[in-house]
Amino acid sequence: MDSVVSAIFTALLLTSNTASPDHIPVLNFGSRDLTLRKDIEGLLQTVNVTNKELLFVDDMKFSAENGDRFILVDHNILKPSQRKLWAENDVDIVTGVIDHHRDEEVYTADTIIKSCKAQMEAITAAAANTTNSTASVVFSPVYGKSGCECIRDVEVLGSAASLVALQWKKAILAEAVAFTTDDCQKSTTSTTFEESLTARLVASQAVSVLLGPLVIDTASFKTSKGKVTPKDVEAKDFLLRFLQPSELKDFRKSAKKIATIKEEEEDDEAVSKKFLTVPTSHEEEALWKAYSTTLATTTNAAAKLSCVIAPDAPAFIKIGRFYDMLKEWKSDVRSLSVDEHLRRDYKKFTFVTSGAGVDATAPLECGVSTVLLLQEDIDEIFTKADEWVAGCKSRMAEECYNLHLSTLTSGSKQLQAVFNPTTFPELKAALEEFAVATKDHVMLESTGTREYPELGLIMMHWKQHSDVVSRKNLTPLLADHFVAFYRNRNSK
Q1: Is 9 within 8 Å of 164 (Cβ atoms)?
Q2: What confidence tens digit (pLDDT) does each residue in 88-118 have?
Q3: H-helix or E-strand spanning residue 465
Q4: Fewer CB within 10 Å, N- or C-terminus of the chain?
Q5: What is the pTM of this model?
Q6: Where does the pLDDT of residue 308 fall: very low under 50, low under 70, confident under 90, or very high at 90 and above?
Q7: Per-residue b/e over 466-490, b at no fewer than 16 CB within 10 Å?
Q8: Distances (CA, A) of 185 to 168, 169, 181
Q9: Residue 99 φ/ψ, nearest 5 degrees
């Protein structure tokens, strides 16, 4: 959900800048996989967006020679297969990054600025030879032929959508300053305001869609889950200023068709103790109030619509109910096959660039699936494991990687590893050492190892006793451990 929504709203923000070419949100997975994510489908359906209106990576033919460029959203490195397919040097095609994961530092501020300049020179040269205008792009990645924004915003937060929302906030506050100055008020026309970011954001009636990933990724902003930061709260508070009462009413009406909303109310004082609060500065609050007052005196209809900008979060939003609804959609997985479970929430990583296997040049590439199952379903995996391990083997062959990890979530978290011990004979020892090295943080308890000689694979399994370590936290730890493990092995 985070990458999909963040790509859409990044494209909307950049395209709203009249000095910038269009940007197109492209989802970085196949179109068939969206049907596996009922939470994304449900959220977008509340604003009448269907699969047919979205672009997926398998719909597009990218080419660096044609000027295609990418702004990456919710990750900060392209997949190895994409890097080889789309350009000789992938650093040249990435013109921006907005991500909340650990910074891999592949696309730095210097490389992004260089890529932006080269692209703008190519666009200028092309414009001199043709009357055709160049399109721009945004990729989930945010894919583009513009990239002139030169955005690099990488910080570990609960949600990438928080960074996107704060990009909107930065732009709208800049507009607020302009709209509240005397000179600007005298020269402002209704057309000027209609084209403003404020008008576009509120008129879109889709603020709740951008709020969705924040709510689900931070576990409803509860500090006990360890997933929320002050910037996530700041982003949430900003979005609540623009959330229309009618929008939420329509949203809940749509939502009830698919999910049952809990009707019981929580005590306000009890709720407030669960959430991290970030007070707004007096200067910023004064600016919001002045902006709201200015818009209230504007005759433009879009401006009147924007007058809901308020200093306090509106009382009609129930974050807990919103979270319950999204989680119910996300949990709708009972009908999925093994292959669909493994594809549903999947990411690929390169943990060691070379020297990990029998082949000294072999990288250790890993596919990681977050699998949402009920406890009885997880138990069934290990009583009838052949089908599950065979499914992992198919994924490994299809996506060309060596190790498959599944983070299994139910009442408790579990971790599963499937790999070929012939190709990577020391991987079992590496994983065992990882469990020991992170026993105070990840808290892995081994529940056994099984061999599948007919498939040529081994499956290792652990219970994870830490609730706060998710895939986002786990993969950097694994990456660092594997690099150190194989460096030590190769130095002997």
Answers
A1: yes
A2: 666 677 888 999 988 888 887 777 777 777 6
A3: none
A4: C
A5: 0.75
A6: very low
A7: beebbbbbbbebbbebbeebbeeee
A8: 22, 21, 6
A9: -155, 150
